[in-house]
Amino acid sequence: MDGKHMQIGEVAARTELSLRTIRHYEETGLVVPSARSQGGFRLYTEADVARLMVVRRMKPLGFTLDQMRDLLDATDRLDGGPDADEDEALLERVRTYQQAAAEQVERLRVQLARAEDFAATLSARLERSAPARAVDERAPRPAGPGGQGAG
Questions:
Q1: Helix, strand, or coil here: 61?
Q2: CA–CA separation, 7 vs 33, rounded Å?
Q3: pLDDT tens digits, residue range 94-108?
Q4: b/e map of 52-67 (b: 16 or more CB within 10 Å)?
Q5: Which long-range contacts (CB under 8 A, 24 or more apart) does 28-35 make?
Q6: Angle of the 84-138 helix axis to the 65-79 helix axis, nearest 10
Q7: Of the candidates 67, 70, 86, 69, the residue with the CA atom closest to the CA atom of residue 78
Q8: Maximum Cα–Cα distance for the chain, whole Å?
Q9: Cystine design at 25: which of 10, 30, 33, 54 (Cβ 3.0–4.6 Å)?
Q10: For 44, left (φ over 0), alpha (ψ -120 to 50), or beta?
Q11: pLDDT at 151
């Protein structure tokens, strides 16, 4: 990390999160800016952006804010330095989240496959209907009573 600080707008652009969402994550204690400018603007580092990306990736998997906070705490403590007594318990916490994430990804894959099947069914239906309607519109219509062809 080079120690460069970014303002919230740059962080929002990089993480594809709204300013409001980033501020909410600050209010809930998930990601706190590393510094403030003299004017009071939030300043973030690469490490802060990495934390926001963890949160962003957990959100669509259905993790709660408390679970996000717990995982970030565990990874922060693991990154903080060796503590053999605590490391195994922390690793087990991270493994639990990894397993939950993998299970949710599989559920999402099933949902996506169903959604793709549905979209393909609609496309096939439209393809079957479109040529038939085009042919119907070009075909001569039978004459009604008293018209041509009756007789």
A1: helix
A2: 9
A3: 999 999 999 999 999
A4: bebbeebeebebeeee
A5: 28/65, 28/69, 29/69, 30/55, 30/65, 30/68, 30/69, 30/72, 31/55, 33/8, 34/5, 35/5
A6: 130
A7: 86
A8: 101
A9: 30
A10: beta
A11: 46
